[in-house]
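Subject: for your reference before the review

Hello V.,

The reviewers asked for a structural picture of the protein, and I figured it would be easier to keep everything in one thread rather than splitting it across files. Below is the amino acid sequence we used in the manuscript, unchanged from the supplementary table.
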Amino acid sequence: MDEVPPEVPPEVPPEVPAEVVEHYEQIDEARRITEGLGRLELLRTREIVRRHLPGAPQRILDVGGATGVHAQWLAADGHDVHVVDPVPAHVEQARGQSGSSGRVTAEVGDARDLPVRDASVDAALVLGPLYHLTDRSDRVGALAEARRVVRPGGVIFAAAISRFASLFDGLLRGFLFEPGFSEIVDRDLREGQHRNPSDRPEWFTTAYFHHPDELRGEADDAGLEVVEVVGVEGMAGWVPGLGSHLDSDEDSARILFSARATEAEPTLLGLSAHLIMVARTPM
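And here is what came back from the structure prediction:
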């Protein structure tokens, strides 16, 4: 019998910055949005996606889908989800989300060069890649790749971090009063370029923080038709102690209402830590 060659572990795409991969290897990305106030991001993302996504079953590509947190609830809704993520550890965890349904698959890949055929999926989630593509051409390229693989008239959901996220987070958690953090915030506000020379995980990693007005221009250049740009968490995302209220269905409904009530208000978009752009591919 021929000897079976050992399985070669997947490699990180070469253009992904090492510090970004190291950051996600240090934190538990799944727990970040499934515990405490972080659940608000998950609940609101789910709400926004569901109101635009056609009924199941749909073929969904989850680009930068990390450990498969979104793939899990999408599969439970009856959709078939393929996760593409640059972090091998994430891909292994995402594969474990399939369970008995077999509806979740995953592989290592780059948002700018997707290992997926043209027009082969009904929808795409791009809920992480734009965070870490610091050059505008790369962000437009990732959106154009999503357009390539989604069928005509299909929907694309793209998430961005708000230009003001570090400022508000620094005030909330006291980082703004620590040496070095003000310089990070100054650059964020001036250029949108977030850098963390100290490598403290709680100060995030190499990233780009969008001004709310920028997303539509990037989508236009990628050949997409924008449906809406909304704020995800609103003011609720910055209120200390609010996470425990998400344990109550009644309180959770009120918190979600507060985020929904201001989600499309242009003067308040930047208040949310995260933004979601909903777009469609041309027919």
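For the response letter, the relevant points are probably these. DSSP finds eleven helices and nine strands in the chain. Strands lie at 59-63, 80-85, 104-108, 121-126, 150-162, 193-194, 207-210, 225-231, 274-280.

Happy to draft the paragraph if you're swamped.

O.
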